[in-house]
Amino acid sequence: MYKKNRLFFLSFIIIHFVALAQSKKNITIHSHNDYEQNIPFWNAFNNDLNSIEVDVFLKDDILYVCHEPNKIKKERTLESLYLLPLEQAIDLQLGHLYNFQLLIDIKSEANTTLDKIVKLLQKHPKLIQNKNITFVISGNQPEVEKYNSYPEYIKFDYQKENQLTAKQWEKVALISSNFKKTSDWSGKGKLPIEECNLVQNIVNKAHSHGKPFRFWGTPDYKRAWKTFIDLGVDIINTDLPYESSKYIRSLSERVFHNTQVSEIYTPTFASDKKNTEVKNVILLIGDGNGLSQISSAVLANGGKLTLTQLQSIGFIKTQSSDDFTTDSAAGATAFSTGQKTYNRAIGLDANQNFIPNITEFLSKKGFNTGCITTDEIIGATPAAFYAHQKDRGMDNEIAADLLKSNLSLFVGGGGKYFDKNALEKVFTLPQKVDDIANVTSQRIGFFLAEGGVNGVINGREDVLAKATKNGLAFLQNKNKPFFIMVEGAQIDSYGHHNNVGGIVSEGIDFDKAITEAIKFADATANTLVIITADHETSGFSIPDGNLKDKVIEGDFTSFDHTATMIPVFAYGPQSQLFTGVYENNEIYSKIIKALGIDKTN
């Protein structure tokens, strides 16, 4: 897994808070019938809702919170449930009051009730003098001709077709309408285009008066919230304060407009699934790259990847020996040794015993071997192909193992972990990634960075694809069979941060490396390519998007790995061995079988 550096964290934090600030500025979430919540006011306020609705009924000169007089409870008044808590929030400097509105829905006679509301509010100067708070009258209202007779802090929720004077419009805080008069849409599936147009016209009319717009009587689901936001509805009506706030406030972070392109390569399939000799093996691992991550890259790339052209497809189960979900160390060790192990183990079995990995085994059979990654080269996944340590965090020990390894080639970040003089005694270190192909030395290494490697969204260019292309050329020039592991590491990193743009852009970048591998397989006819992942990260899903505009909306259930099965794609001779459903450690034995090598020798 990619080791996060300070720059990565800083950029993530800046993006997070800028997006949050933008969502707060542009979208009002309205707690409909808030008094029916288990904890009125505080539930909505704590979840960052900036509009709260309360029904009031005037009886015996007291403003009770209820819908009708037979449901009056003496202790539930407008003052006790809303005005005093709002005052307390100000005194204690709790939450964020930004364009906050208390929408008071009058259920008793309009004029006398509103007069009582004004009289009550005058007892709370801290509220009526606060420029961030507006009191909006809805439900039963006085005639529009009386609007301007009320104090400045009193505004109105306008729901009629009448034309108002300019001065009367100044007293209108918002325009509202009953959604059920426009559509019977349930909020599931797409809103029909005809009804989209109707909604858009209603919103546009409200905006022509310079006022925000709200529907009530709306479906209360994620798709509905997103649909109304996309259609320009300014105030989202909800009975689900926590769920709506969590979804809407994170929406700007989770919608990604892709600009990366992986040019699709169509394989010849001349050697695919043939029972012919396999000379070379390319194993590509997209760290954290589950089916939804792959799907997001496909959809953001116009509906295709080179990866999705392949025909031999299977699934692996990823559990480690000690946990329901694997980490990258145990997952990569299963690939590299054929044995499941405990999480954090590098090249050791479940009892912490040394087990040879595939690069060591194949080196004895006359193979050259290599590792390429967008992680630091001592990261868990590449380390599992050359190192043996009890814990993935043993950086110095893992770095020492690289010097003792049989690798012919390595490319990755993490130069700071190595003594350059000691390293140059073992590996030639070219200056540029494009030089790799032409190096005549037997062993080479190339550092993409001293520490962690930048992500694509932070400016990294096609270095993974270039390293793959040049690394394959280097190995081919040695005129020996080879095994190479290529890792697209940062799909996982961005999954841990629930960063949709990072996941999509790294997935597309990974496909560029896959393209180089498939082209090489077609050119040689004796190369087997396997593409998979060690695990899925973040419980990623794709609730919405736009193929034409390459827009992806992502959502998450976790900040960590999940246990979902992982797809395996294979191409070239013997690729059919990788179909079906099996354990992750069987990747190793299938590779050895495809090579026609006796594992016992």
UniProtKB/TrEMBL annotation:
Residues 1-21 form the signal peptide. Keywords: Hydrolase, Phosphoprotein, Signal. InterPro entries: AIM6_PI-PLC-like_dom (IPR039559), Alkaline_phosphatase (IPR001952), Alkaline_phosphatase_core_sf (IPR017850), PLC-like_Pdiesterase_TIM-brl (IPR017946). It comes from the Bacteria. Gene3D superfamilies: Alkaline Phosphatase, subunit A (3.40.720.10), Phosphatidylinositol (PI) phosphodiesterase (3.20.20.190). Its EC number is 3.1.3.1. One of its GO terms (molecular function) is alkaline phosphatase activity. Pfam families: Alk_phosphatase, GDPD_2. Belongs to the alkaline phosphatase family. PANTHER family: ALKALINE PHOSPHATASE. This is Alkaline phosphatase.
